[in-house]
Amino acid sequence: MDLDGVEADGTSREVTVTGLRALTPPAAEDFNVRPVSAQGVAGTAATAVRATVTVGPTFEAQSQNPGSNTRYDISIPISLDSTTTPPESFSTQTDEIVIELEDYSVPSSISESSIALRLEVGSSTSNCGESTTVGDCPINTIADTVSVSGEKIAITIGDWNKDRTGGNATPNNGVADGNIVTIVLKQSAGIKNPTKAGNYGPTIEVKATHDASNKLVDSDLSDRHTIDRIVKLSEEDGGLGDTVMATASGFEKNVTVRFFVDGYMGREPNGILQQGEDVLCAATSSGDNVASCEFMVSTPVFKSGANYVNAVDGKGNRGSFTMKDDQKFTLKPSIRATPAGGSPGEIIQVQLASFMQGAVSRVSLGGRDVCGGANPMPCNGSVNNQGTGTSRVAIPNWAGAGIQELKLWVGDQDDSTNVTIAGPRVVPTPSTVVANQRVSLVGTGFSPNARLGSITPNSDEIMPSISIGGATIDWRDVNDGRVVNVDDSGNWSASVDLPMVEATTGSGDRLIRITDSKGRTGGINVTLAARDFEIAPPSGRVGTLAVVRGWGYPGKNDEGTSFTVDVTYKVSERTETRVSVVPDASGNFEVQLRIPTNAAIPSTNQVEVAFNLERNEGRITDVKQHMVPEGIINLSETSGGPGTEVSISGEGFRDSVPVGSVKIGSIDITPAPKPYTDRNGMFEFSVLIPGLDVGIQTIEVQVGGTTSSTGFTVTESGINPGDIVEAAKGVAPLGENLDSVWHFNNDTKAWNFYDGLEGSDLTHLITGETYLIRIKSTTQVILNRETRNLTCNAAGNCWNQIVW
């Protein structure tokens, strides 16, 4: 901008100021201040006015990082001349504050809510609360209007019109001399720092309206905003061989930026690429002053612990001399196991890298100390001044099989890797077992020349042990009580009779665990078969046989001990029938059980399958329900008129008891003498249907306290005695199944027949007459409106006598 000065003799001088540096004039000097451009912010024309400047504005930014979107605080002391007529004033909602942020990234528009304003009117603010509006208390508001033109932001202040008394009272609708206006450009405003390192600050214009003129007050900044050159790494820690992205910001654009470890070989970081400090990678900086490239972590460039990466560009500009966390890469120690596993007693060679110099102080396997730590045994191996070393780790006898964590410490540093421990191995045959079963075990990888069995341990031995599911197995049940010797390769074999204990009577996996006399332990899971039984059929009549089948029960053991299983049928909690059975080697059994004849009909009863455990551990009992159905009766005829003879048969009743009563409807038709059930609870007898109302009537039979019933349809006779029908028509329902029909005429003493062929001399059938019918196969057919059951016996006799 141009500034026109007035000399003491009245002549004028002009100087052009492109920044705010050296802008503060002598206190008594008059300046005409106007923009270099003839056009002000947002179209406001500039007019030469008098300006008096005191203390300069301050400018603070929350971030010094290049290109960072951050918050900015600007405090502007207001100086007004009250001796003029009228006095100079700065009005809110009318006058403007213009902030020019050259080299900053300013969005094309900014919301009023993204700019906060604060008016400080004095220093006596100790009693100020958020709602206080008197005295020296500050007033807060937001921008009334905001307009953006390029890098210039024009702000009209919101309404600070307060009715205030006391202290340096602010005139209504204005800002008093000596007041401080603080402008906060929030992060949400979207303004970003310059992308190149350097010192920056805004140009600030306070444009006040007075006597229809624009008053422009300019001042240099008391504080400058420094943008740093920074280096950031994509990873904060890692190991050898890792790839890391390095990014430098704030450096010169379009030049090569080189990255290096600052402080190589114990030197203090100083921001200078010195001899011996290798370049990690290089990249050309872009238009936004950013350069990025990848490097691989390796030795001896990186040392164990903290390493700081810095950068220098093609013009010699360096990163920060003070190392920051964003520049730090912590090289973590690492180990490698060779081989990556083994069996107890074997040696694993461990290579150490990127550790601090010192001795291996502790080794653990699977979370348990092998040496050092809780184990008083010292460890072997150390790390040299290059951060590398070796350690030999002997796999202990107690190491569990499978993938285990191997962890080593050197002082406070540690690293771990997974190793596969083969461990002692046990193979069972079979792998699905039941209690009391003899199982063959083959072991490998155990202590050479160790022993298994009931022994007197030598000085270098312990008492061996064997268990299943945590329950100890007696050595007398292993190898028939003989000691098992492990050969010099760690192999052995033996038979084991599984105990009859609670641990072996439930289904699922159980661990067989063996420890030899030298402390090496191996194990294998076997699967205990599910135990259950069934009753077939699930319901049955008293006196009949049911089959009980079981599986998963204690197995037969010809070499050891066999156990019996008791199968009991209980009626009303009383044992009525019991049988014992020995399951086969797989724990399966099948046995017949007679349903007690004194069981209630119908009833629900219990079948129990039980066996005793060893060691006085109790008795195992499995229970299922069994149904005894009600007795049933069957009728030879399901319908008929009065006088029809009906055969009644029944089953499912108590054996050898009389039929108490037989009724149809309310009429007692019990035969005399009363029939009895046979030994199987069955009966059969005939009755005549009495004269009853047409319709369904109930036939009810009471036997031994059990009553059963069924329906019978009473019909009208429909045909009078003596009614005649043609023979061919009468037997037509039999069709091809008819052989012949014969009738004896008692008057003529002659036989007549009908077979559908020529020569037949029986021409008609008469109701009430008796006929002999010969059929070809058993059948059920309706003849003369009645259902007939015509049968052939086993001898092939197919003659049937009926009354037509």
Task: Record the SSE blueprint.
Blueprint: E1 2-6, E2 12-16, E3 31-34, E4 58-61, E5 72-77, E6 90-91, E7 96-100, E8 115-120, E9 139-149, E10 152-157, E11 174-175, E12 180-185, E13 198-200, E14 203-210, E15 213-217, E16 225-227, E17 230-233, E18 237-238, E19 243-249, E20 256-262, E21 279-284, E22 290-296, E23 305-313, E24 328-331, E25 334-338, E26 341-342, E27 347-353, E28 358-359, E29 362-365, E30 368-371, E31 382-383, E32 389-394, E33 402-410, E34 413-421, E35 425-429, E36 432-433, E37 438-444, E38 451-452, E39 465-468, E40 471-472, E41 484-485, E42 492-497, E43 508-515, E44 521-528, E45 532-536, E46 545-551, E47 565-571, E48 574-581, E49 589-594, E50 603-612, E51 619-628, E52 632-635, E53 639-640, E54 645-651, E55 659-664, E56 667-668, E57 683-688, E58 695-703, E59 706-714, E60 724-726, H1 727-730, E61 738-745, E62 750-754, E63 764-766, E64 770-775, E65 779-783, E66 786-790, E67 799-803
Parallel strand pairs: 18-24, 26-34, 36-44, 53-59
Antiparallel strand pairs: 1-2, 1-3, 4-5, 5-12, 6-11, 7-10, 7-14, 8-9, 8-12, 9-10, 13-16, 14-15, 17-19, 19-22, 20-21, 20-23, 23-24, 25-27, 27-32, 28-31, 29-30, 29-33, 31-32, 33-34, 35-37, 37-42, 38-41, 39-40, 39-43, 43-44, 45-46, 46-49, 47-48, 47-50, 50-51, 52-54, 54-57, 55-56, 55-58, 58-59, ...
